[in-house]
Amino acid sequence: MFDEKSFIVAVEESFRMYKERGARSTEKLKPLHKYIAGVLKSIWGNGFEVHYMGQDTKELKVTGKYYPKKIDITITRNDKPVFCLGIKFVISSLSSNIYNYFEQMMGETANIQTKRIPYAQVIIFQHKTPKEDPSKGKNIAKIKLQKLRDQDIKKYMTLINDPKKQYCPHSIGIPVIDIAWTKTRNKVSMTDVKKAFSEDIAEALKTKLSLQHLFREIKKYKKEKYPSKRNG
Q: For a FRET experiment, which of 86, 90, 219, 230 has its CA 20 to 30 Å from that of 106?
């Protein structure tokens, strides 16, 4: 199941690839997708296939209600999609993308879940996000940072507490990270949300919006929808 230290290693490797290959390269996504896919493999087990962007596997294009879409991670059984998960990693330009990400997430979710395929979402935020793309060579020390605010998280709280609609993801995981930007290494750590946010936002990030809760919800769904023979 989920291990925080392993997750941090995957994020650090994604940042390393981002700096080496640039923001447009898909290589930066592979370490992170591989780690999350590994957790999902441990949950779904034998009889299910996990499709994602990796060395020996690729994303699966899933037919949605409105349009076909390549999904970051798709679980299939007998070649049929049974669960999907999208991943967003906010590396820079938070202010110009914060609402776009949210609206895109709801649209993607409705497109898939209207076809009766559960769709979970992982959104990785930095507590302090560079306003510019650091991979373009500008001195990192001179790039302004934008702090993630309570209101940036609150809309996800409202969404997850909404009566279940097609646009509301099956579950949402929002890890918030701190990163020490340097020329040689990007040291990643989990943000102390109790110090960074108000009490109710911090509580949500540690419970309903945590990665631990997301994976527990997926495990619960798999057990209920596809019980093992041992469990009847």
A: 219
